[in-house]
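yo

u said u wanted the structure for the complex thing, so here. seqs first:
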Amino acid sequence: SQQGEEDPQALSIQEGENATMNCSYKTSINNLQWYRQNSGRGLVHLILIRSNEREKHSGRLRVTLDTSKKSSSLLITASRAADTASYFCATEKNSGYSTLTFGKGTMLLVSP
Amino acid sequence: DSGVTQTPKHLITATGQRVTLRCSPRSGDLSVYWYQQSLDQGLQFLIQYYNGEERAKGNILERFSAQQFPDLHSELNLSSLELGDSALYFCASSVGTSDSDTQYFGPGTRLTVL
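structre next:
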């Protein structure tokens, strides 16, 4: 079963707007990661946030983590057409193994 | 380019057949992971190897097996193929087994079972 569930399933915005994607998960985690996947291609790691962190920034990306609500959000500011992709959250459970459980993803379409 | 290579890019075969997917990790990475991505199941972790040894197992079917060789490349063997095995199969690699190690994904092998 999927550990992470992204919301919304799909998001369509204009260039320059901000995009926010949410992820909820079920069990306690060591960290949560966000990945991007361009259509049918491999996943690209974007950012990792540890369970003891609340917020993290990387360029135009801002990730928050609320462990009490078991949720995370990914904010992409000033979006570009090149940001069009599917975005997945992946959780690493506190299991002693570095294995990831992915959600089903949010499909982001950024129109020029 | 992640540095992880996978061959072949596409594979079309018939039900009941057996195929082998190959993965070469990034230079210096000791861990290799296999994932399956399908429309209905999403992206699922199958199995992990670290320096030649099986490290963790996910939702891998008994018809599937994998190994990591001394040169660290890995192969995923899928046998008695069924229509439902049609999917994208990704390999990823990381330096070690720490939960802070980033996994780098290959471009995937698209398997179509007819």
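The two ends of chain B are 31 Å apart (CA to CA). Chain B is about 0% helix and 55% strand.
cya
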